[in-house]
Write a structure and sequence with these properties.
Number of helices: 6
Largest sheet: 6 strands, mixed
Shape: globular
Structural class: alpha/beta
């Protein structure tokens, strides 16, 4: 059977999907078949894939519940193939919090589930106050104030380190 990779994601504002598309492009350069799914659209058998990559963004300190439920429901199948997980969050904009071992959301995530993927990554997201609904804008602004980030509502910053995403993609190709 030819190698087939699945990428499943949850994205609130689109940055996780953007990262998934970049990873898919890199993996496809190896002539590997890659299928991309939103967590809400994935209804395949996990074991139809040689590799499965799960990407999830953070909102208000937690990963998407559907991602967590998916992992818990499919743990046995996930453990039978090569897997990767990556988190996208604004805390990862800080150098001291941009690795799986130092990012508080990733640490908390893996303490709450019984799954160990083959590879784990963390990427900083994008801050775009004008794109957020009123309540989200206020809450994110407050969180940024607490973490000494930008609070000006005109701020639009893509913190994602695309070289780091590319390096993660090379790890995924070599799984």
């Amino acid at each position: 059977m030819k190698a087939k990779t699945g990428i499943i994601y949850s994205s609130v504002d689109g940055q996780t999907l953007k990262i998934c598309n970049k990873l898919r492009e890199g993996i496809q350069q190896n002539n590997q078949k890659v299928e991309l799914f939103s967590i809400t659209d994935f209804n395949e058998d996990v074991t139809n894939y040689n590799k499965l990559i799960i990407g999830a963004s953070i909102r208000y300190g937690v990963h998407n519940k559907e991602i967590i439920d998916f992992i818990n429901t499919n743990k046995k199948q996930l453990d039978s193939i090569k897997t990767a997980f990556f988190s996208v969050n604004l805390v990862a904009r800080k150098p001291e919090k941009n690795t799986p071992d130092t990012n508080p959301y990733v640490i908390k995530f893996f303490k709450s589930i019984d799954w160990t993927p083959t590879v784990v990554g963390v990427f900083a997201g994008k801050l775009d106050y004008k794109k957020y609904p009123f309540f989200d804008r206020i809450m994110i602004q407050f969180i940024m104030w607490m973490t000494k980030g930008p609070t000006n509502t005109n701020t639009k910053i893509e913190y994602t380190n695309w070289d780091k995403v590319a390096a993660f993609g090379i790890q995924l190709k070599n799984l």
